[in-house]
Amino acid sequence: MASGTQGGTITIVRGRLLWFHHEPLGADDEASFILIEDGGLVCRNGRIAWVGDWSDLPADHRGADYADHRPHLIVPGFIDPHIHFPQGQVVASYAGSLLEWLNTYTFIEEQRYGDPRFAATMAKRFCDMLLAHGTTTCVAFGSVHKGSATALLAEAATRNMRLVTGKVMMDRNAPEALTDTAQSGYDDTKALIADWHGEARLEVAISPRFALTSTDAQMEAAGALAREHPECLIQTHLSENHGEIEAVEALFPDAADYTDVYERFGLLTDKSLMGHCIHLSAREIGRMAETGAVAVFCPTSNLFLGSGLFDLDRIKGGGVRHAIATDIGGGTSWSLLKTLDEGYKVLNLQGHRYHPMRAFWQATLGNAEAIGMADRIGTLDAGTEADFIVLDARATEAMALRMETVEVLAEELFVLQTLGDDRAVTAAYVAGRITHATA
Q1: What is the pTM of this model?
Q2: What tens digit of pLDDT does each residue of 334-344 get?
Q3: 120 in helix, strand or coil?
Q4: Cα separation, 142 vs 155, whole angstroms
Q5: Distances (CA, A) of 148 to 7, 122, 126
């Protein structure tokens, strides 16, 4: 499958190839995607060097070893733009609401990540879980400890994964052991950017946890980082829960609304990934559209914590960029397949449709566009980074039974979306190298 000839390490795979060129405009928008029923990928030095029909495989690669994944689908690796590294062991923690869940479980668990050895061990397990579920890129929150972000960046570097993370900035309304200061949060993030941003396939995100846990001074420090490092993504939370919104309004009485808190500190830009965005006013939607900020839909988390229903049609209609994410550990599944499934249900409850072609665009190219990396990941185009996964729509007996009546691609994708999980991910490739495979 791999060799050191012809100018570098080469991996060749064969299977049914599917990727998108733009968001499907409808169920019959065949121009939005490419499907090659018997296709091949040639990966060289971490990038896709050639893609096309297997019968057209370049002559200098014929006869070489290859991985044959037929009849499974090969799609770009999933991209998770909102996930919490320190929360893998608080998934499925019983709570009635966001703030109860944070105070009862999450803030306690995250204190453990001050231990560098523990953080390093959990970073390995975190990356293993991502790849087992078909996620090859993520944007992750660390804990308040600089070392948590360092551990995750170091682990991703050993796997050559494309990954973005940052230490959360949090100087109030949290346990003392889990708070920094405006200055130390600035200094630690500045150091992470200097040490890691742009190294290998890694980036550092400016990460004020949310307005509820940052003073004005810390928000100003985060805004300063955003101005000094316009190349960095900004990740935070916005308008998830009514109690949270009321608390933020009390802390920032001069702000027009929750969104305005971020904007007045320079944290609402086209680099901003705003988790949840469930209860936005018309004014807030307008400002997000004008600034280019991204609303990140986290359906399993929103349902689990009873936060509300994300209105994708309203967000799209307002011209706001958008993404979809697991939000582990408020989210209840590491799988973007299950996340798409719950997203379908959230939208269906509101009388909206979530076509499977659009869902798979969102989890791949759509999310790549949201984090500003569509030129590198999210497709199978030649020249892009060779991150892709292999999906088996017959992975379980229930899926195989349903697939006996499936006739078209959209139906197959909907089976994967509705019944699939990590069992459907038979292989994951990162930079052209297989990093996960089922037995």
Answers
A1: 0.96
A2: 999 999 999 99
A3: helix
A4: 13
A5: 37, 9, 12
